[in-house]
Amino acid sequence: MKLQISFPVQVGAAHTPTIHHDTYPLVTAANCKEQKNRAVFITRASRGIGRACAVAFTQAGASAIAIGARASLDPVEKAILEEAAKAGHPAPKVLKRTLDVSDEKNVVSVFAQTEQSFGRLDILVNNAGCLENGFPLADTDPTSWSATWEVNEFTSVECGGQGVVAIAVHPGAVDTELIKALPAQYHTNLVYAPELAADTIVWLTRETQRWLSGRYRSANWDIEEIMSRKDEIVEGNKLRVRLVL
């Protein structure tokens, strides 16, 4: 499958020789046995990539799955329970909560409830995002791009000092409601399956990948090829987002 629009090399769309548009055997969630009995929280889990993540962690055997979104989560809970039965896993404990990640009080309350219900949290999939329409700045509503900052930037907190491993995962060009804000000429590129991002996230969190903390990784890059370049990436301080002056 070939994308209709080519991107400059610095975008990193083809950082590995092998590029994926759908999930593949190495990252298939059902094969990630290390996730058994883990507790995970997924934001914006009502649809798209978030829903796919909830299903993927279920396939991998997670025992406690918290899902948060502003929309109804009943269909996602049903999908989780059906997937657990299909995989032969015990039904995971499911916690559904209305969540607006830009509302600090809401976030604090929901995570306190998660801690009380699960006793711990092993993995956070911070899937919530916001994208303003692709218009010239003078033609936009300031509230739209300020919302993008609130959701995409201000809700991410530096926790490296507490030993938290944080990996920035680009899900690829997935046809979701959020991405429709892009200009129409990019819509032909929305060919990636949400399961690719979901399974990649399950694989990346199956064990502590401390060397990947603070680095960028695209779901379409081949996992095996990226892992084989670990020394090159670490020694060259690559895959980090930096401001170069």
Structure description:
It comes from Botrytis elliptica. This is NAD(P)-binding protein. There is one protein chain. Helix 5 links the parallel strand 5 and strand 6 (216-218). This protein has helices at residues 48-59, 74-87, 104-118, 142-152, 194-204, 223-227, 230-235, and strands at 39-43, 64-69, 93-98, 123-125, 168-170, 216-218. It contains seven helices and six strands; from the N terminus they run E-H-E-H-E-H-E-H-E-H-E-H-H. The protein is globular, with a radius of gyration of 18 Å. The chain has a single domain, classed as 3-Layer(aba) Sandwich (Rossmann fold), CATH 3.40.50.720. It has 245 residues and is an alpha/beta fold. Helix 1 packs parallel to helix 2 and helix 1 (48-59) packs across helix 5 (194-204).
Q: What attributes characterize this protein structure?
A:
245 residues; alpha/beta; Rossmann fold; 7 helices; 11% strand; globular
Short summary of the structure?
The chain is of the alpha/beta class and 245 residues long. The protein contains seven helices and six strands. Keywords: Oxidoreductase.
Question: What is the SS-derived class?
Answer: alpha/beta
For the largest beta-sheet, the strand count, sense and barrel status come to: 4 strands, parallel
Q: How many whole angstroms does the radius of gyration measure?
A: 18 Å
For the record, give the distance between the C-alpha atoms at the N and C termini, rounded to a whole number: 37 Å
CATH top level? Answer: Alpha Beta
Total individual domains: 1
